[in-house]
């Protein structure tokens, strides 16, 4: 595997287009965050699949469809590429790895788990995050696999809606696992690891940022070991989906913070199409 293209964001994030041995490609985002808006100031966001099964309406990867799973070595290879770049430039070494690039990591769980275990043993990395639309059985499998381990995997649940009907419009997987079921699984995961699962909620103008949404989210999240993470939808030029503006995000945050723990997420790399939901394969095979 090799880097075909490297792009630099105004926030100092770096996006790599990585060509695989079979000619397919994935994108990887390195985030440097000296202001500590993230938990760590040197993080790599990696892909677990070429394309994605989930078909999320807002996501550039999902709109390309699914091609194949990555192997554990292809997953680790993204980390190695980024790590070498950091060391060669004498920059801050990697502190954490985030499975939030292309693909649904829990649909490739065996290879993701193998990659995590090797990254821990070979590079000493023990801080991870994993973003999922909510593959419920696999969340419980993660509990079984990592309970008692020195490996920390923070769960990020991509919710983005407050009802099943609403969520099915943007995340078809909701037909398989409903909102209440995935919230219950995230809360169970957080309780076992004595942490807080992060509930990601991208705001779309006029779609999921009403007073009713706020009330329903409060009912879903209040009293559970969960933290609401709000952000703007990253524009992908999809008809019918418009990002909420900054004032709308702030208004929704001010409403939610009175009832649940909440924060506004800084979208790294959005100016180079490296933000959440923007990564995709851009190399012809």
Structure, described:
The chain has eight helices and twelve strands. The protein has 285 residues and is of the alpha/beta class. A ten-stranded mixed β-sheet has the order 1-2-3-4-7-8-9-10-11-12. Strands 5-6 form a two-stranded antiparallel sheet. α7 links the parallel β10 and β11. The protein is globular, with a radius of gyration of 18 Å.
Radius of gyration: 18 Å
The fourth-level CATH homologous superfamily is: Aldolase class I
What's the CATH topology name?
TIM Barrel
Low-pLDDT runs: none
Number of strands: 12
Given helix and strand content, the structural type is alpha/beta
What CATH first level would be assigned?
Answer: Alpha Beta
Which strands sit side by side, in order, in the main sheet?
A: 1-2-3-4-7-8-9-10-11-12
Helical residue percent?
A: 25-40%
Distance between the termini: 14 Å
Provide the number of structural domains. 1
Strand content: 15-25%
User: Mean of residue pLDDT?
Assistant: 90
Query: Largest beta sheet, briefly?
Result: 10 strands, mixed
Note the overall shape: globular
